[in-house]
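Hi P.,

Sorry for the delay on this. The queue was packed all week, but I finally got your sequence through. Input first:
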Amino acid sequence: MTPDQRADAGLLTEIDHVAIAVRDLEAAISYYADTFGATVSHRERIESDGVEEALIRVADSYIQLLTPTTPDSPVARYLERKGEGIHHVGYRVADCGAALQAVRDAGGQLIDQTPRPGSRGTTVAFVHPKAAFGTLIELVQE
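Then the structure:
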């Protein structure tokens, strides 16, 4: 995508990842490997969010498999309420702070009031699903 095409898309430049909440990370990794021949390109434990992730690259984006590492993490609560499945969509942005401010200026409901460190060295912030037609949105700056 050229810089001009990115500018045409507004603040969102690409889909960074689709996050899937799972109870058994190893089983989910095996499923993607056995079914699709997919391999994990990055794996990380994010203590601040109480999750472990495995990222599977698909073109320029990822499938993010998430499992809770603590019983009170947001992903653990999600699994209790809704079961396994799509947890959120991550969109790449050029400037996470500017994108977060644009959501705030538009009257959007935020989870994160300021950007914070994410996995693989990114900067992230979450937009509440009540403000985004039922979808939890993660803004991701690489």
